[in-house]
Amino acid sequence: MSDLTTSAIRTPLDNFPDVIIHASETAVKKHVRYKDAKAGDSDAAIELVQTCVG
């Protein structure tokens, strides 16, 4: 049995814009709709963003 490992191919982020943080990670992760948004619920994601950025 061989030991096969894989790794992601990384792409340089040259000239990628800085990220702007609008809310603390804790506030976002404690939001009542966070888990739904993280799971792909777009309505939950919109609600989370509107609450945190609002």
Number of helices: 3
Query: Rounded to an integer, what's the Rg over CA atoms?
Result: 17 Å
Averaged pLDDT, please?
89
How would a crystallographer describe the biggest sheet? none
Please report the total strand number as a whole number.
0
Helix content: 40-55%
Give start-end ranges of low-pLDDT stretches: none
Computed structural class: mainly alpha
Which percent range describes the beta-strand content?
under 5%
Q: Ends: how far apart?
A: 55 Å
Written as H for each helix and E for each strand, in order along the chain, the element string is HHH
Shape label: extended
Structural commentary:
This protein has 54 residues and is mainly α. It has a domain at 20-54. The chain has three helices and no strands.
Based on the model shown, name its key terms.
54 residues; mainly alpha; 3 helices; 43% helix; 0% strand
